[in-house]
TrEMBL record:
Its EC number is 2.7.2.11. It holds the Pfam family AA_kinase. ATP binds at residues 8, 168-169, 212-218. Pathway: Amino-acid biosynthesis; L-proline biosynthesis; L-glutamate 5-semialdehyde from L-glutamate: step 1/2. This is Glutamate 5-kinase. Keywords: Amino-acid biosynthesis, ATP-binding, Cytoplasm, Kinase, Nucleotide-binding, Proline biosynthesis, Transferase. The keyword Lipid biosynthesis does not apply.
């Protein structure tokens, strides 16, 4: 049966570690495998990192640029080169491709989010393999995915993919970074993110020299994707043929079982597509009413408001211990909430001088995470 596959390849797999030059044989094999999957009827999206790494190699830089302006300039050099290589390879295989560059703001605004969805749907219908990257050259710091693991999970959630493959330079997830802890234990199957939390996997630093985020961002990507019902796999980019083997049931890499939450696409957008601009801290009663009772959030249960936000913007909702329990869209701005927090809904009119909504976050706009 045709399936929707999102494959993310990291800089560490696309480039040779010693020189930073392109790992041509890996990329060529990947192009072959993805074209074969396409010809079998699967819908395929490639999320490719590498703009900064390839741009750096082109410009003779020996380490990943740190300043934002330099990174943005280098990405502009690298992205073009990367797409040229992909286009040459895929054209040889008669597989049309498209470049899709996204920034976080494309997913924050609901109308743009739906627009991106429509574009993907159309491209997939046309038999094209979209090649996605963050639009590093224009992305501003506050509105960045920051890493392509997160971006690929959001894309997989957006298109309701069956599979997300995170291709990297290690063969699977280990109990600790195998580079620094040689006897770290391999993990082949993760039944739930709860189980993973209990395993207390150590993720060390920021990953390889050119990569962004290391294992931390892959685990949080798995969390986003599995919650959207997407089976997620961490496996080695050097062996793209493994993708077909995994789809056919072989146990390779680390596989995360999908854990679809009973939330629709709109609630997934609230939970993971939006960038929370503030934080609401709740007393125990309100935290329980939301977590266990599926209730809306009222002003009375809010003990503290942090950040600056307007009405209808996204906030994180925290219990008394500081754990984020939910996200939602607020009916009041941060200024208004500072005045009405801890107060009964019937007092709102008197405090603000006008009639407001009864709830601070209505349960239709609230999603547990
Ligand atoms: N628990 C762990 N299991 C496996 N790899 C880990 C772990 N913790 C950290 N890592 C490191 O994460 C790196 C991959 O992340 P990264 O360099 O960001 O790759 P990519 O460029 O593919 O996104 C590996 O090279 C490995 O050293
Ligand atoms: N958008 C950036 C990639 C950021 C990123 O997540 O890198 P990686 O950890 O190698 O997947 C680029 O193209 O260089």
């Amino acid at each position: 049966m045709p399936q929707t596959l999102v494959i993310k390849i990291g800089t560490s797999s696309l480039t040779q570690p010693e020189t930073g030059l392109l790992a041509l044989s890996t990329i060529a094999t990947l192009a072959e495998v993805l074209s074969q999957l396409r010809s079998k009827g699967h819908r395929v999206i490639l999320v490719s990192s590498g703009a900064v790494g390839v741009g750096s190699a082109r410009l003779g830089l020996t380490e990943r640029p740190k300043s934002i302006a330099l990174k943005q300039a280098v990405a502009a050099v690298g992205q073009g080169r990367l797409m040229r290589v992909y286009d040459d390879l895929f054209t040889t295989l008669q597989q049309p491709i498209a470049q899709v560059l996204l920034t976080r703001s494309d997913l924050v605004q609901r109308s743009r989010y739906l627009n991106v969805y429509n574009t993907f749907r159309e491209l997939l219908e046309l038999g094209v393999i979209p090649i996605v990257n963050e639009n590093d050259t224009v992305a501003v710091e506050e509105l960045k995915f920051g890493d392509n693991d997160t971006l690929s999970a959001l894309v997989a959630s957006l298109v309701e993919a069956d599979w997300l493959f995170l291709l990297t330079d290690v063969d699977k997830l280990y109990s600790a970074d195998p580079r620094s802890v040689p006897d770290a234990k391999p993990i082949s199957l993760v039944n739930s993110i709860k189980e993973l939390t209990a395993m207390q996997v150590q993720t060390g630093g920021q990953g390889s020299q050119w990569g962004t985020g290391g294992m931390v961002t892959k685990i949080s990507a798995a969390r986003i994707a599995t919650a959207a019902g997407v089976r997620t796999v961490i496996t080695q980019g050097q062996y793209p043929h493994n993708i077909s083997k995994i789809i056919n049931g072989e146990s390779i890499g680390t596989q995360f079982e999908p854990q679809p939450e009973p939330t629709g696409a709109r609630k997934r957008w609230i939970a993971y597509g939006l960038v929370p601009l503030g934080k609401l801290y709740l007393d125990n009663g309100a935290a329980t009413a939301i977590s266990d009772g599926g209730k809306s959030l009222l002003a009375a249960g809010i003990t503290e408001v942090k950040g600056e936000f307007d009405t209808q913007e996204a906030v994180g909702i925290f219990d008394g211990d500081g754990n984020e329990i939910a996200r939602g869209l607020v009916n009041y701005s941060s200024n208004e909430l500072q005045k009405i927090r801890g107060r009964h809904s019937r007092e709102i009119r008197e405090i603000l001088g006008y009639e407001g909504a009864e709830t601070v976050v209505h349960r239709d706009n609230l999603v547990l995470i």
